[in-house]
Amino acid sequence: MDERAAEVDVTSNGANSEVLVSVSDIKKHFPITKGLFGRQVGAVRAVDGVSFDIYRGETLGLVGESGSGKSTTGRVILQLDEATEGTVSFENRDLTEMSGSEVRQLRPRMQMVFQNPHASLNPRMTVGTIIGEPLVEHRQSKGDERQARIDELLSLVGLEPKHANRYPHEFSGGQRQRIGIARAIALNPDFIVCDEPIAALDVSIQAQVVNLLEDLQNVLGLTYLFISHDLSMVRHIADRVAVMYLGKIMELADVDDLYNTPKHPYTQALLSAVPVPDPEVEATRRHIILEGDIPSPANPPPGCPFNTRCPIAQDRCHQEVPEFRELASGQWVACHFAE
């Protein structure tokens, strides 16, 4: 089997599924420089060989600890950061080979919802100006037509159109994130990267924002890459889940398979830390405590990247990078001993 065929098999979840975004072995290494002339002495391997497909209309959850490379992966997919190696395709068009102007033409179809609604909105611009900025930038409407579109977007995300002349500081955190979502859908995109969109919000507001994203997906036919460290919320919104650690994918599976029968020791440890609402079940559950911190991406360990913290690591794990293999239908894992 050739290498590309193997990649197709790895990410395929059905012969009739349409792939919207395809990520193939992308790497993003940030150089470490030293001295007066900026001589490169190393690199931070933020993303170190990641491959997956995202199917039209689905939500792919991307989870992992802070520093695992989730947000960088999202930024590379949208070409906000340039990949060191690998390819990103959107509807079979290779974004990494496009010029800046060609990517700009596709930009309306690929948008992002940022993590911090306090920092991602310009405090000197009114809400209407913020939401209308993409329309101005891509010359999609003018005058009354643009204002009508802004009013429509505000209504879609559950805000009052009459508040378009207010400034971001006059809104709560949850309302600001709704404004960010309205800006992201202004150009009728097909694909949105949600970069931890609920991390900065109160727990009571998080479910409202996730429900809004689901409603918009159903109404507008959106496709999401949902980046988060909140495993409970990812289970609620995602169709499939990829677990990331130190720049690599450790496990990829349908959401029910991953949560009910996790195969990778890292996935098992993450899920064991998620509380169960039943006190009797919680009292009898096994909790896996990982020792130490995630290694530096500037100096990753040889072999399996998880070997320094893995409870079942053996000599082979310190020497040989595990193959990303399929254990069950649609459930892929990078572990020598997963069964």
What is the secondary structure topology, with strand pairs?
Layout: H1 3-11, E1 19-34, E2 39-55, E3 59-63, H2 70-77, E4 85-90, E5 93-94, H3 100-106, E6 110-113, H4 127-137, H5 143-156, H6 173-184, E7 191-195, H7 203-220, E8 223-228, H8 231-237, E9 240-245, E10 248-254, H9 255-260, H10 265-272, H11 279-284, E11 324-328, E12 331-334
Parallel strand pairs: 3-8, 3-9, 6-7, 7-8
Antiparallel strand pairs: 1-2, 1-4, 4-5, 9-10, 10-12, 11-12
Helix pairs in contact: 4-5, 4-6, 5-6, 6-7
Describe the 3D structure:
Helix content is 31%, strand content 24%. It has an 8-stranded mixed β-sheet, with helices on both faces. The protein is of the alpha/beta class. The chain has helices at residues 3-11, 70-77, 100-106, 127-137, 143-156, 173-184, 203-220, 231-237, 255-260, 265-272, 279-284; strands at 19-34, 39-55, 59-63, 85-90, 93-94, 110-113, 191-195, 223-228, 240-245, 248-254, 324-328, 331-334. Helix 4 crosses helix 5 (143-156) and helix 5 packs across helix 6.
Largest sheet: 8 strands, mixed
Report the count of strand segments.
Answer: 12
Cα separation of the termini: 23 Å
The spatial strand order of the largest sheet comes to 6-7-8-3-9-10-12-11
Mean pLDDT: 89
Share of β-strand residues: 15-25%
Helix content: 25-40%
Q: Rough shape? A: globular
- Succession of helices and strands: HEEEHEEHEHHHEHEHEEHHHEE
Count, helices: 11
Alpha-beta content class: alpha/beta
The stretches of 5 or more residues where confidence is low (pLDDT under 50) are: 1-16
Rg, Cα atoms, Å: 21 Å
Features:
339 residues; alpha/beta; 8-stranded mixed beta sheet; 4-stranded antiparallel beta sheet; 11 helices; 24% strand; globular; disordered N terminus
